[in-house]
Amino acid sequence: MLVNPVINSVTSKISLAPESIEAEVVQNVRMIITTIKGSVPLFRDFGLDSRIIDSPTLMAQAKISTEIIRQVRKYEPRAKITSLKYDVPEIGHLRPILTIAVKGVK
């Protein structure tokens, strides 16, 4: 069982049969935060808005945080974001790092 899994936007393998509900939720949240809005046919609202990319870092951080929270609530209601931080490996780059709890799983 995963306890408060940490999710970041670094690519990882996709499992077509996740080992547990927690692993499935983590994979779904990772998919949400790594998808560009408009790139998924029939789900044009899925993912994060790419127009945020050209915003100043602090403004982008606020906008991305809002987008992530809204998208996770909409597309993966089993996940509750308990922490949202950013890794800034270099100026102008933001990597969201989320810690989540999976609702209904002990």
Automatic annotation (TrEMBL):
The record's annotation in SUPFAM superfamilies points to:
gpW/gp25-like
Q: Indicate what this protein is called per its UniProt record.
A: Gene 25-like lysozyme
